[in-house]
Amino acid sequence: xxxxxxxxxxxxxxxxxxDYERSxxxxxxxxxASGLGFLACVLIAAWVGEVxxxxxxxxxxxxxxxFYDITPTLRLxxxxxxxxxxxxxxxxxVELLLETLLVAYVGTLAGAGIGFCLCFLTSANILNxxxxxxxxxRSLEFCRTVPDIVFALLFVYAIxxxxxxxVLAIAIHTTGALGKQFSEVVENIDLKPVEGLRSTGADWFxxxxxxxxxxxxxxxxxxxxxxxxINVRGATVMGFVGAGGIGKELLSSIRQFxxxxxxxxxxxxxxxxxxxxLFTEKLRHRFLDIGLPQ
Length: 294
Hints:
Blueprint: H1 4-48, H2 53-70, H3 79-86, H4 90-119, H5 130-145, H6 148-159, H7 163-187, H8 192-199, H9 204-238, H10 247-255, H11 259-287
Helix pairs in contact: 4-7, 4-9, 5-7, 6-7, 7-9, 8-9, 9-11, 10-11
């Protein structure tokens, strides 16, 4: 018996090693198959998209030459005069940039408010209404699937030129985007406080106010600030279709080959977005661990 026990243990070890090797081999085969499948998808996409690497390589010098063309001439000895000449229409551009910021701000505020109200209707863990949840989810999908510039085009056609089409387009797209993000936050909350309030006979609104919001409000603020930063860039692009802001002036300068104006406007946009990014980042970090006061 003493001689048989080591043999049995060795057989078990050999069996475990074979199982381990087979498991590793299967994982390796799955990884190889996944990699080949991904490579095949990339090649098919390149073929369908008519990707031409030679043409791309030939166009890179022209890409950099455009940046060279729009770079202004700044001389250290006459720096103030060169900057004044570069920003000859600076105050007008600042007004348009402020209009872009207001379009993004109002659109984000409206979209965040609507998305905040609708996100609780899409969360099955706090609302047992499958039909209503289905309808609201599909509506939010439509709002965020259609590009905001398409909404801007529709509203420009219906209302006319100006910032109002941009505000409406951003508000609709933000409703769909933030509604989805807010609902995902709500679906991942701890349900014990909700069940505790429900057991006391509290109504649905009281459960939302005292059990759900304290858990999600910091994430809501963080997502809202991030969306505002995204919408500032979106509002700039929507100016291309006449939805207000500095985008229209940028497109006009590009079309008329006013290279110095293009670079001046681009620098203003980049600096503005960078400042907004820094500001919203600090606010997001501040609100990250802050809940709704009781």
